[in-house]
Design brief:
This protein has about 240 residues and is mainly beta. Helices cover about 5% and strands about 20% of the residues. It is elongated. InterPro entries: Cilia_flagella_integrity, Leu-rich_rpt, Leu-rich_rpt_4, Leu-rich_rpt_typical-subtyp, LRR_dom_sf.
Length: about 240
């Protein structure tokens, strides 16, 4: 069942709640007829789907890639990334490897100062070879073939994690990412919200286009201002309790 505190887009059920959360869910296969929305009195913007990602990348990323080489290693099956001196000077804190037809993350040595890493639009199946990038704050793996969240435990400074349009079935292995501000998992195969209660600084959680039927396990997300659950199979919402409510 849908709590009466939620305000319908059509204007019905106007028993509003005084909180800091913007929640958009779809309660049936007829989104225009039965969409429910919980808005906030804080004036925070809404960042649906890819718009969120584009806005964030505009602040961090730039064109690059002409001077990047992937060299085969004689001691492992992974490619080793090499950048020219010019590339390192121009983009000292960021690295873009989108649309490189990568199936694995290359070894990235001598780049411990990186703050942004972009692997968009590749064929990567597993997150690996980035545990040494401990200053990383922005990691974009949108549109790959990743099946499991892993390989992130050392990235304690990470604030933006974009894993939309992958093959992830479970939210897991985020225990050490306590500084996360944005977590984008839209377009995956997730059936349950779990293992996020410790993310007390998380402001944006995007779970649109997954396989969710229940909305629960959100306790502890005290900073959450944007929760996107569009295009799921939501039947009811269970016990949403937060400090801001």
């Amino acid at each position: 069942m849908i709590p009466g505190k939620l305000r319908s887009v059509s204007g019905r059920a106007t028993n509003n709640v005084n909180c800091g959360l913007h929640l958009v869910i779809q309660t049936s296969s007829f989104p225009e007829k039965n969409k429910v929305e919980l808005r906030l009195n804080k004036e925070t913007p809404s960042f649906p789907g890819r718009l969120l990602q584009h806005d964030l990348e505009r602040n961090y990323s730039s064109r690059q890639g002409d001077h990047i080489n992937l060299v085969s290693s004689s001691v492992s099956s992974f490619h080793i990334l090499q950048r020219s001196s010019e590339e390192k000077i121009l983009y000292s804190d960021r690295l873009t490897l989108e649309r490189q037809k990568l199936t694995v993350c290359p070894v990235i040595d001598g780049e411990e100062h990186l703050r942004l890493l972009n692997f968009q639009h590749n064929f990567i199946t597993r997150i690996q070879n980035i545990s040494n990038l401990r200053r990383l704050i922005f990691l974009d793996l949108y549109d790959n073939h990743i099946e499991e969240i892993s390989g992130l435990s050392t990235l304690r400074s990470l604030r933006v994690l974009l894993l939309g349009k992958n093959r992830i079935k479970k939210i897991s292995n985020l225990e050490n990412l306590k500084s996360l501000d944005v977590l984008d998992l839209h377009g995956n195969q997730i059936a349950k919200i779990e293992n996020v209660n410790h993310l007390c600084d998380l402001r944006v959680l995007n779970l649109a286009r997954n396989l969710l039927s229940h909305v629960d396990n959100l306790n502890g997300l005290d900073s959450l201002t944007e929760l996107n659950l569009r295009h799921n199979q939501i039947t009811f919402v269970v016990s949403i309790k937060m400090e801001s409510m």
